Amino acid sequence: MDSDAAAVGVNETTLTVTRYPDPNSSSRFVWYDVPGAGTLKVPDWKYFNEQGLYVFDCIIVVVNNRFTATDVAILTNARRFGIPAFIVRSKADQHIRNLMKDLGYDSDDEGQNRTSFYARARDQYVAETTRSIRTNLEEAKLPDQPIYLVSNTALLATVTGRAPKKMLDEIKLLTDLAATAQRFT
Question: Distances in Å between the alpha carbon of 174 and those of 102, 114, 168?
Answer without folding.
Answer: 31, 29, 12
